[in-house]
Design goal:
disordered C terminus; single chain; alpha+beta
Length: 147
């Protein structure tokens, strides 16, 4: 899938193909306030994977590419489990899930928190991170349960 959406960036591998899934909706209990942890809220996640799709295109075989249906299910589960304080932590968790597939060389993850407890009118709060395969080895390890 080709996109010119600059909001998802180009990651560290601009010459590779990009598989993009936008608007993954999940309900989570993330946040620093008791109300957020108790009541939860809807989050939306966008992922953009830098991958090489030439083999998959040539063979027309799902086994040669990232199964985005399975990936979406894993991202949704990541949002719906193990509450964290910060969307930075949640985005990092999701990036690690995406990078578990060795074909993914980098990933842009955007976590949207449209119902953040802010005393102002706003459309959305969003954080976008970019992680590459080498980042996985140097990232701090989570003390929570692995996904």
């Amino acid at each position: 899938m080709e996109t010119n959406d600059s909001s998802l960036g180009t990651g560290a591998h601009p010459t590779l193909d990009r598989l993009v899934v936008r608007g993954i909706e999940a309900f989570g209990h993330h946040g620093v306030f008791d109300l957020e942890r108790r009541d939860g809220q809807v989050f939306f996640v966008d992922v953009a994977l830098a991958i090489d799709t030439r083999t998959a295109a040539r063979r027309d075989d799902l086994r040669d590419t990232v199964d985005y249906g399975s990936l979406v299910a894993r991202v949704k589960t990541a949002v719906e489990s193990d509450p964290v304080n910060l969307i930075e932590t949640l985005a990092s968790r999701i990036a690690s899930i995406c990078l578990q597939d060795g074909r993914v060389l980098s990933v842009d993850v955007t976590v949207h928190k449209p119902h953040a407890p802010i005393e102002a009118t706003f459309d959305d709060v969003a954080l976008t991170i970019t992680r590459t395969r080498p980042d996985l080895d140097s990232a701090p390890h989570s003390t929570g349960s692995p996904l």
